[in-house]
Give the backbone structure.
Amino acid sequence: MGSTAASSEIPIVDFAKFLNGSGEEKEEVARQLDSAFCNVGFVYLKNHGVLKELVEECFSWNKKFFALPQETKMLAPHPPGGSHHRGYSGPGAEKVTQHIYDKDEISKQNDDFKESFESGNIHDTDQPNIWPPDDTLPGFRPFMETFFLSCSALVHNVLDALSLALHTPSPNLLSSAHGKSRFQLRILHYPPVAADQLKDSKRSRINAHSDFGSLTLLFQDSVGGLEVEDPHQPGIFRPAPPIEGTVLVNIGDLMARWSNDRWRSTVHRVGLPERAGLGEMVPDRYSIPFFATPDRDTIVEALPGCWDDGSRPRRYGPVTTFEYVQMRMETLYN
Ligand SMILES: O=C(O)CCC(=O)C(=O)O
Ligand SMILES: [Fe+2]
């Protein structure tokens, strides 16, 4: 059972009942996900099928990679511009903005204080991976390629649960719209920062934003600081603390649009952890988001079950994934 406290709370759902359960159990999990995504846009999944050992190992590669000397990390540089999203971005390279498309407005935003490394599907010829030379961190590349596959499998399972929730004509409608699995695995490192600097949201580790794809998985370490906007009280952010053994799953803007705003793409940010004392240093934070996007030619228009000719008209015209993503990426890097 998902917890049923206030609807702005992020429920915990046992995904084993979808992966291995009876037809009825699958339906029940699908309903729980649907309700979480309608209410807060986020859910914690336990028994999600990505092995604990793999998650732990990914955190340890995350630490090893960012501990490399800056000049070594720069051997796998993220290309300038927003269309090839692979490789290493140093502190301040990316400004996460919330629906601001004007360059002057973007430059007024605080710089995020973080560094990241992105990799994607090995078959993605549009965005080939950019790896550091093998001898700088032997084992890193094959591990990340394996972890990608495991996260990708989870995304497809969650998509199947969502298709079930909507009773789409084809039971794998959403999964097949992501058939090429052109996803993005990011490892993120936020260096230590004085708690005072994060107080009153003067500065964020990552500014308030929503994700722009379909679904995001997020593994976080034990440091905390992730906050999710209360969908029923705009401007109020609530902690989304790490919960051992779970992965957070959230809806992105493209999925919100696809679902005709049935599912919410909720604004989130990383700031001061709940327990941090002022005057202290907040330790490094490591996290691992995995971003799913449909295949580039997928036409995104209101899904079956999300609109009707009565009280739920279609709110958006059709757009391809490619057109949509281009528009959003251009604003990220300048
Ligand atoms: O580091 C985190 O926990 C959040 C990362 C995030 O929201 C993002 O990369 O889109
Ligand atoms: Fe995010």
In short: Confidence is low (pLDDT under 50) at residues 1-6, 98-108. Residues 300 and 319 are 5 Å apart (CA to CA). The first helix runs from residue 16 to 19. The two ends are 45 Å apart (CA to CA).
